[in-house]
Amino acid sequence: ESNTSASTWIDVEGNEHAQVRLILGADLLVCTNDADLVASTIDSALVDGGKAFILGADQYTRFGVQNFPGACRQLGLQVTVEEDLLETNFAAQEVDGE
Q1: Which residues, 6+ apart, have CB-to-CB distance to 5 below 8 Å?
Q2: Which class for 72: exposed (0-12), middle (13-18), buried (19 or more C-beta within 10 A)?
Q3: What are the angstrom distances between the C-alpha of 58 and each of 1, 50, 81, 98?
Q4: Which of 21, 72, 68, 81 is nearest to 49 (CA)?
Q5: Residue 44: which H helix or E strand, with range?
Q6: Which residues have CB under 8 Å from 14's CB, separation 6+?
Q7: 97: phi then psi, degrees, rounded to nearest 5
Q8: CA separation for the pair 11, 3 (Å, rounded)
Q9: How far apart are CA 61 and CA 73, in angstroms?
Q10: How far apart are CA 67 and CA 59, in angstroms?
């Protein structure tokens, strides 16, 4: 869940956390709805200009992987997918290079 403060985010248990510049994740996507949940969490937890690198199985092994890039893009995050590896570069809130 997003917080009104630009430098914090609130987890599902109601705990407030500082946003971070780097997120490393592995095998986060198992089910189809995980794509939206993980993308939303990254969007909330990452500072503007931060990066997240998400490693995982391919779309034939994990159902949520195929939907993950689109879920990130819907939130305005920039995504690069390489081979069987999801490498996501996020510039949250940036549009047209701003």
Answers
A1: none
A2: buried
A3: 27, 24, 11, 32
A4: 21
A5: helix 34-45
A6: none
A7: 75, 15
A8: 10
A9: 22
A10: 9
Lowest-confidence segment of 5-9, 45-49, 67-71, 89-93 by average pLDDT: 89-93
Tokens of 50: 């931060």
Confidence of residue 55 (pLDDT cuts 50, 70, 90): confident
28: its two tokens: 């986060």
Angle at 56 between CA 51 and CA 8, to 5 degrees: 35
- Side chain identity, residue 92: A
- The arithmetic mean of pLDDT across residues 55-74, rounded, is 87
Q: 14-25 in b/e burial notation, b at 16+ Cβ within 10 A?
A: eeeeebeeebeb
Average pLDDT over residues 31-45: 93
21's enclosing H/E stretch is strand 20-26
Query: What are the structure tokens assigned to 66, written together?
Result: 């195929």
